[in-house]
Each structure stands twice: as C-alpha cells, then as structure tokens.
Write a structure and sequence with these properties.
It is a single chain. The chain is an alpha/beta fold and about 140 residues long. It has a single domain, classed as Rossmann fold (3-Layer(aba) Sandwich). The chain is built from five helices and six strands; from the N terminus they run E-H-E-H-E-H-E-H-E-E-H. It has a six-stranded parallel sheet with strand order 2-3-1-4-5-6, with helices on one face. Helix 2 runs parallel beside helix 3. About 25% of the residues are buried.
Length: about 140
Amino acid sequence: MIIMVIQGTDGNDKNKVLSQLNDLKGEFGVAGVVTINVQHIADPQQRVEHLKRMIHRRRGVVNVIDGATSEPELTFLRQLGASFFTLCRSVLPASLLKIKNAIMPFDKLIVPYAERRGIESDVLYPDEAFSVCFLRHRRCQQAA
C-alpha cells in the first residue's frame, strides 16, 4: 500500500501535482492512482473514518491524500507509513504549524513539472516523489 500525502494550499500548483500524479497510471507498475480529498469533512474523527474506508490496500494502487489538516488524521496516516510532501512555495494552513509531527524533517518538498527552476535540488517532481514512496514501500516489504 502506497500513500502520498500532499500538503499546502496553492490551488494551481496542487492541482498540477495531483494531475501529474494521476498520469503515473500505467507507469512504474502503477495499476491506479486514487486521490482522496478529506477537506469537505469538518469533524477530524470522521475524516479518519473516511480515510479508513477509502484507502486502497491493493498492490499497485497509489493513494494520494489531499486536505489532511488535523492531528488525528495526520497521526493515522503516519502510522500507516504514508510519505508526506509539501508543495514548494506554498502557504501551509496555520493549523498544521500547531500540530506536533505534522511536518517532519524527513518530509519532502514537491513541485509540478517545469516549475523547479531556481529551486533547491532536493525539491522533487511528482514522478520522483512517487519513486521515493515506491522505494520506501519496497524496503518495508523486504524487512517484513
């Protein structure tokens, strides 16, 4: 099970990244890309329940989570081994800055294709971000 959490509020860049991640279907052994948006659910506990129902556990499916901004859902996603990516040059919701472990030192930055000019080399394109998730997933499977 591969889970990618996209954080940040820049609608244009976020939409581009989500679209580019969806384009990975059929590449790199990706059978499907499922985008799960929980922004429309007000109650944090209901968000977690929604994620429990919606996350695909099938091999080859990439779950892309958008709109996770509360402590219960972020904790749940980290416990599942989700990889977190923050949109570079994006404003984070103020609520994330107040949540312990919402942003970790090993989380990565992401930008849409053709947007990396003038940005540090550790900022990833969507396919590079997927590769990070895939390698992490593979290492966890081998360790089990």
